[in-house]
Design goal:
With 286 residues, the chain is of the alpha/beta class. The chain is built from 14 helices and five strands. The longest helix has 22 residues, at 97-118.
Length: 286
Amino acid sequence: MSAEPANPVAAVRAVLPSLTPAAQSIARLILDDPGLVVRSTITEFSAVSGTSEATIVRTSRALGFSGYSQLRFALAAAVAKEPERLVPGDIAPDDPLTDVIAKVARAQTEALSDTGAQLDPDRLGAVVAAISDARRVDVYGVAASGLVAADMSQKLLRIGLSCHPFSDAHMALTSAALLGEGDVVVAISCSGETPDVLVPARTAAEAGALIVAITNNPRSSLAGLAHHTLVSAGRETAFRPGALASRISQLLIVDCIFVGLAQRRYDSADAAIRATREATDRYRNR
């Protein structure tokens, strides 16, 4: 069996969409109140969750642990480092703005921490190398992920790399059909199931392009077709749909790619940054 997840909360959140309905109900209880698992034996948790002990064990294994005891110990270790994770933190309709600020800030901080903890440096290095050597780089993303795609494009342009963002499915498909070996597509989707991203990415893969997925769900269809998957963290709620914690975690991954590229291409990147800074300074000071 592979190593158990270092960050159990992030691991549960990442695979939640791919679980069975029964396992999802258990996983949501874990996310809503990790302390409940820490405090409960499997018999007690079975009574609270209304599921059988066998279902709890199967769910624990689906989450990457060898059993319920290992999940419980991992959560206990995690909350010992960050005790605030024991307290449910969803925004309620009647929360005062002071609580809203604190909960949103906490969600952003957790998303960044969880993403950094599970970001594989070897995989990130492979992505940086592929983009650095690519003939063409296209980025697909819609809605909030489209904003991340645009951010990645402007960052790469700043260091002299041509990168084309597409937030329209038809234009993305047009791009994908013209790609081939030596090209790279970065496909960004929180769920990993967004058709406007998934279909062009599949088309690009069939044409021979290398696919990089940035997604919250490592078991998604997008992750399944990608050559490299970088897993972001952050969850959506009624008051924080897609845009907040998920987007900030995607932006962290984009920033890591950007810095890796700037290091790998230091001389040309430094010259490009200085040239673009001088051009914008002249425009502002005219």
